[in-house]
Every structure is written in C-alpha cells, then in structure tokens.
Amino acid sequence: MDCSREIQGKQAHDDPILIEKMMNTTSSWRCICVPGPVIVGAGPSGLATAACLKERGVPSVVLERSKCIASLWQLKTYDRLRLHLPKQFCQLPLMGFPTGFPTYPTKQQFVDYLEDYARKFDIEPRFNETVSGAEYDTTLGFWRVRSVGVKGKGTEYVCRWLVVATGENAEAVVPEMEGKGEFGGDLRHTSLYKSGEEFRGKRVLVVGCGNSGMEVCLDLCNHNARPSLVVRDTVHVLPREMLGRSTFGLSMWLLKWLPIRFVDRLLLIVSWLMLGDTARFGLERPRLGPLELKNLSGKTPVLDAGTLANIKSGDIKVCPSIKRLKRFAVEFVDGKTENFDAIILATGYKSNVPSWLKEREMFSEKDGYPKRPFPDGWKGGNGLYAVGFTKRGLLGTSMDAKRIAEDIERCWKHEAKHHLAFSRSALLQCP
Ligand SMILES: Cc1cc2nc3c(=O)[nH]c(=O)nc-3n(C[C@H](O)[C@H](O)[C@H](O)COP(=O)(O)OP(=O)(O)OC[C@H]3O[C@@H](n4cnc5c(N)ncnc54)[C@H](O)[C@@H]3O)c2cc1C
Q: What does the angle CA 350 – CA 388 – CA 148 come to, to the nearest 5 degrees?
C-alpha cells in the first residue's frame, strides 16, 4: 500500500514542513522531505547551529544516535569533570551561562545549561537515530541522509542542506596492544570511567597524558588508588591560572597584541617559575611552544588542575611506553615489568564522518576532519557544512554555528517561496 502524509508547520519559525511518504505500511522504510537543513548530532555544536538557524527563522531537523542531548557529556565522561576552560569561552551563541555558575562549571551544570538552551530554542532532536549514510544526489540537487532507528527502522531524509555536527570525539580510540587478551584485569577507555571509587587500593595504569589522562590520575589519587601514568610523547603542562587570570584567557588577550612565539615564551617562563622543570618528572616539553603547537597540530596543552603536585610527590608514577601486556602486569619499553589491577586508556577520540558521509571534497577520509584549515573548514559544496571540527573547543563551535546559520539563511530566504514545491517534487523522487 502506498500512502503519503503531509505535516505542515504554521510558519517558517515553527516546525519544519515535513512530508512523509511511506511506501508500504508493513515496510520498515520511510522517506521524509525536510525543506530546512538536517543537522547530524545533538551535542553542543548541533544545538548551537539549530538555535542560530531558529533565530533567523530557518527550521531544522536534528538527528541524534543516542537517547539524549550532549551524549558525550552525559554518558561518556567522569564524575569529577568540569569545563577545562573558563565559562566565558564555553558558552553557546545567544544564551550565556547563569550568573551564579563558577568559573569552571561542573559537568552537571554544563548539561543543565544545554538542556535549558535546547528548551529555550525549542530544539527537539529525533533521538535514537543513527545516521548510517549520506550522499548528494546530483540529479535532484538534494542530500539523501539515511538513518537507522530502534528496531532497525530505516528513514531517508531528503534535504537541501546538511550540517555535520557529529564531533571530534565521536568514537573512542582504543590502541592495539600486544598481549591484550592475556591481561585479565579491568581494561577500559576513559569514556567508560566514572570515578576512582571503584579502584580504591588498586594499582591502575593510565595510558595517555592529555587533560583527561592527567585528571583521571588525580581522581584515582583522591580515591586512594595507586595510579601510574604512561607518557609516550612530549607534553606541555601549564598551570590552569597564571598572573591572576586563567592561562587560556591570558593567552587570548596577549595574542591580540603580541606575536605567538613571544606569548609562548612568556607562558613557558611563567610555567617554569610556577611548576619548575617538568622534564625532571618525566614530562619533556615539545620543541614548539604550546600555542604554536596547538595551531599547527591541534595538540592541546594540559592545564594542570593539581596532578603535577602528585607526580612530584611520587603519588603518581610516570612510566615509558608499553611494550606488551601480561597477566595482571605490563612490560614497558625499558624492559621493566610491573603489576597492575586495571588499565585506563586515556587515548582520545576520533571523528566518525568517513564511516557515513559519502563525500570526498570537504572531509578528509583519513581523519574525518574538514580538509581546509580553520577558519575555513565550516563550508563545503552543495549545501554541506561542518560545525565543531576546529580543534578549538566550544569557542570554535560558536563561530561555526553563527557562520552556517547566516549562510543558510541567505539561500533560505531566496528559496522560501519554492519550499513547498521542493518538498513535493522531492517526495515524488523518493525511491
Ligand atoms: C572530557 C572532555 C572535556 C572537554 N572539555 C572542554 C572544555 O572545557 N571546553 C571546550 O571548549 N571543549 C571541551 N571539550 C571538547 C568537546 O569536544 C566539546 O566541548 C563539545 O562536546 C563538542 O561538541 P560537539 O557537539 O561538536 O560534539 P559532541 O559533544 O561529541 O556531540 C556530537 C553528537 O553527535 C552524535 N553523533 C555522532 N555520530 C552520529 C551519527 N552517525 N548519527 C547521529 N548522531 C551522531 C553523538 O552521539 C553526539 O551526541 C572537552 C571534551 C572532552 C572529551
């Protein structure tokens, strides 16, 4: 049986006009034509873009694979997490943080803020919809976005604009390690770590010395576990605050007037005065300064929230790279072997865009990031956009979201009178 259903929004400011076509009532397949943009991902980036679009009178549809907004923050982060950067650098466009929030809001405060944000802009993502494929149909001039819902129900969204907001942290990176199967203890990625409570009294090896690895070590110390930290690479550790200001804020301010190398030099001198020579504790610094390195490679300096004091005191032991895992033990590249009850992999995340977006111009197949560097990576061809892939956290998200909304609004106004015709013609083209 072939049936069509039309759901029409009252105005452009209201719900998008959806025309839904069900080829067969018994089939698990359906096609929905969306005159506005489809946004993939309901994290801060997807929400910010939907809000900026709404503000400009452009309705959108947000697709989210999990059951809630900001799933990274709600489901995959540890209890003690706070924003790493001061709140003024993390708020989304059009709505600031409540005045009572501390400088570094807790994870729960940030999630509450995002919930309020979604409510304020009336953003209701379609949850439990994992986008499994998206490609531009050159004949029609539309994007075809396929999602899989609960019980495998498939939907194809047909739209003129596609906004990729799946994030830099879409999938956990779990490195291959020789002897992984032999270890026998608890081995997990930080995305599954909640608190040091369950590791009380245990010997835990944390692999990776970015902000997450350092903070997990601190959390383990605070819960009387016995953490060791694998440091494979050079790393810049900076105090979170210096000269009475946040290090990040101070850097941004200095960069307005001074060249990056000069600011880097200054940061390193103050860090040395405050923290001492970190190389003495096994944390060698990279050859490039922290800001220059961030700009060139995206590698974020660690903002120390207290971990270094525990490294200095010996409560956290620094170890070299892992050679192989053994039964409840780890052999390091220096030939030493130590016993551990658990291993936490603070080995980061990666983009999942190449796994579902069939497009080769804008996104790199290798790392799933836009090929053009910041600040030009937000826009591709044929109505394709990226938000939140700048390696500049929520500040980058805000910049992208505003630009995208402005750009789409221009076409939206131009094409507004054709929207219903668009939907009808697209409906006829649904397979
Ligand atoms: C521990 C930690 C702390 C951080 N602290 C800060 C900080 O203090 N300040 C800062 O600026 N940044 C910080 N960041 C960076 C962080 O990436 C951003 O804060 C923010 O979460 C990025 O938002 P996003 O929407 O781009 O990505 P995410 O928050 O990752 O949201 C992407 C969404 O897309 C969904 N999705 C993915 N694939 C699909 C698919 N195929 N179909 C449908 N949905 C999909 C995901 O489920 C997710 O909900 C931190 C990151 C981590 C991991």
A: 65
Tokens of 53: 């679009």
Helices (H) and strands (E) in the chain, counts: 11, 25
Q: Atom 15 in ligand 1: which residue has the minimum CA distance?
A: 393
DSSP track, 252-263 = HHHHTTS-HHHH
- Give the pLDDT score at 169: 98
Cite the beta strand spans of 220-354 per DSSP E: 226-230, 237-239, 241-242, 245-246, 302-304, 317-319, 322-326, 329-332, 337-339, 342-345, 349-350
Set out the domains of the chain in order of their start, with CATH numbers. 3-170+351-429 (3.50.50.60), 173-348 (3.50.50.60)
Please tell me the predicted confidence (pLDDT) of residue 29: 74
Residue type, 92: L
pLDDT value of residue 250: 96
Nearest ligand 1 atom to alpha carbon 41:
34
**pLDDT greater than 60 at residue 151:** yes
| pLDDT tens track for 85-113 | 999 999 999 999 999 999 999 999 999 99
Please report the atom of ligand 1 found closest to the CA of residue 130.
42
Q: Is 103 exposed, middle or buried (0-12, 13-18, 19+ CB in 10 A)?
A: middle
| Ligand 1 pocket check for 63: Cβ under 6 Å | yes
pLDDT tens digits along 173-185: 999 999 999 999 9
What Cα–Cα distance (Å) separates residue 39 from each residue in 245, 277, 322?
A: 37, 46, 40
Cross-strand pairs, 342: 186, 204
Does ligand 1 have an atom closer than 6 angstroms to the CB of 85? yes
Q: Enter the pTM of the model.
A: 0.92
| Short-list 43, 36, 31, CA closest to 15 | 36
Q: Tokens for 338, please give them.
A: 């130590």
Give the model confidence (pLDDT) of 380-413 as tens digits. Answer: 999 999 999 999 999 999 999 999 999 999 999 8
User: Phi, psi at residue 165, to the nearest 5°?
Assistant: -130, 40
Q: Give residue 10's pLDDT band: very low, low, confident or very high (50, 70, 90).
A: very low
Q: CA torsion angle for 91, 93, 99, 104 (degrees, to 10)?
A: 0
3-state SS, residue 231 = coil
Task: Round to whole Å and give the CA distance between 428 and 28.
Answer: 19
Query: Of ligand 1's atoms, which has the minimum distance to the CA of residue 215?
Result: 1
* pLDDT score at 1: 32
Distance 242 CA to ligand 1 centre (A): 28
Q: How many CB atoms lie within 10 A of CB 18?
A: 19
Confidence of residue 322 (pLDDT cuts 50, 70, 90): very high
